[in-house]
Amino acid sequence: MSTEATAQKLDGKATAAALKQELAIRVAALKEQGITPGLGTVLVGADPASQTYVTGKHRDCAEVGINSIQVELPEDISQEDLLAELEKLNHDDACTGYIVQLPLPKHLDTNTVLEAIAPEKDADGLHPMNLGRLVATVNGEITTPLPCTPKGCIDLLDHYGLDLNGKHVVVVGRGVTIGRPIGLLLTRKQINATVTLCHTGTKDTAGHLAQADVVVAAAGVKHVVDPKDLKPGAVVLDVGVTREVDPETGKATIHGDVAPGIEDVASWYSPNPGGVGPMTRVELLANVVQSAEQQARALAAGV
Ligand SMILES: Nc1nc(=O)c2c([nH]1)NC[C@@H]1CN(c3ccc(C(=O)N[C@@H](CCC(=O)O)C(=O)O)cc3)C=[N+]21
């Protein structure tokens, strides 16, 4: 086998920048109608990784003209008090959509919290009603928010003209933000992929990987996917994020789920950082803009 690097890069940073330009135009049109979209973020506690992500989301908002509403709550907040904060955002007209940054501290019940978000303000697409619509819609348009990371993966492949029709996609990881929902999007008729979901209970993940045309590595375990297990020419999305902080310098390094050497095996791959992360963030903006457009249409119709 050749040791030369051959894989082409799926550049999430550049793709997200292009999508942001389109969103900025839609935001400008909304502003002409007197509507400024606003994204709320709810951060519980002071996890450094979560703080970085939330800061990035607000920077993105500023770039496209979306207002930011930052809610920061103490680590030990009670579930009741957190739900009361969400209720405020549900009724705040300046907040078009919002997210609750995950993971939450252990004493809070994630599903109860996600269910308390008004479904039409669910910028993450993780409310059970929106996930349920995704389950129920095999064909036809979905006008409700879609989960951002799965949508980001699909839009990234689409941007590079990579067709998934009839392709075998192997997903590694069964998390709620990506592993579980992505198969629902990939198996819709418009996309038409076949999906295998591998997780810690899977007997022969390497065997499944060897069959994959496309790999979505989303376990959140550093270097869990070994390039030597993949079919040469596979398309590889490196989604999982592991942050390691150097105790001396305090500097964080990001590691993906795919071990080094992937350039020699894959035909296309998304780096990490610089791949699916920026796409996730742009999809969040897209959900907020779409909600604001729906609210504008409802206002215009006098509903
Ligand atoms: N309610 C909720 N929604 C989420 O979407 C959500 C979440 N909780 N919790 C954590 C995960 C993780 N996630 C990332 C978003 C952007 C980058 C990203 O933009 N990364 C940059 C690098 C950023 C850095 O330097 O840390 C990159 O890949 O180039 C990464 C990871 C969203 N998540």
Automatic annotation (TrEMBL):
Q: Please, which domain of life does this record's source organism belong to?
A: Bacteria
Q: Name one Pfam family in it.
A: THF_DHG_CYH_C
What keywords tag this UniProt record? Amino-acid biosynthesis, Histidine biosynthesis, Hydrolase, Methionine biosynthesis, Multifunctional enzyme, NADP, One-carbon metabolism, Oxidoreductase, Purine biosynthesis
Q: Molecular function terms in GO for this entry? A: methenyltetrahydrofolate cyclohydrolase activity; methylenetetrahydrofolate dehydrogenase (NADP+) activity
Residues binding NADP(+) are: G173, R174, G175, V241
- Catalytic reaction equation(s): (6R)-5,10-methenyltetrahydrofolate + H2O = (6R)-10-formyltetrahydrofolate + H(+); (6R)-5,10-methylene-5,6,7,8-tetrahydrofolate + NADP(+) = (6R)-5,10-methenyltetrahydrofolate + NADPH
Task: Describe the location of the Tetrahydrofolate dehydrogenase/cyclohydrolase NAD(P)-binding domain by residue ranges.
Answer: 147-295
Question: What residues does the Tetrahydrofolate dehydrogenase/cyclohydrolase catalytic domain cover?
Answer: 10-124
Q: Alphabetically, which GO biological process terms does the record hold?
A: L-histidine biosynthetic process; methionine biosynthetic process; purine nucleotide biosynthetic process; tetrahydrofolate interconversion
Enzyme Commission number(s): 1.5.1.5, 3.5.4.9
Q: Could you name the Gene Ontology cellular component terms for this entry? A: cytosol
Query: Which pathway, per its entry?
Result: One-carbon metabolism; tetrahydrofolate interconversion
Q: Where are the transmembrane segments?
A: none
Protein's job: Catalyzes the oxidation of 5,10-methylenetetrahydrofolate to 5,10-methenyltetrahydrofolate and then the hydrolysis of 5,10-methenyltetrahydrofolate to 10-formyltetrahydrofolate.
Family of this protein:
Belongs to the tetrahydrofolate dehydrogenase/cyclohydrolase family.
Entry-linked PANTHER family: C-1-TETRAHYDROFOLATE SYNTHASE, CYTOPLASMIC, C-1-TETRAHYDROFOLATE SYNTHASE, CYTOPLASMIC-RELATED
Record's subunit section? Homodimer.
Q: What is this protein called?
A: Bifunctional protein FolD
Species for this entry: Nesterenkonia cremea
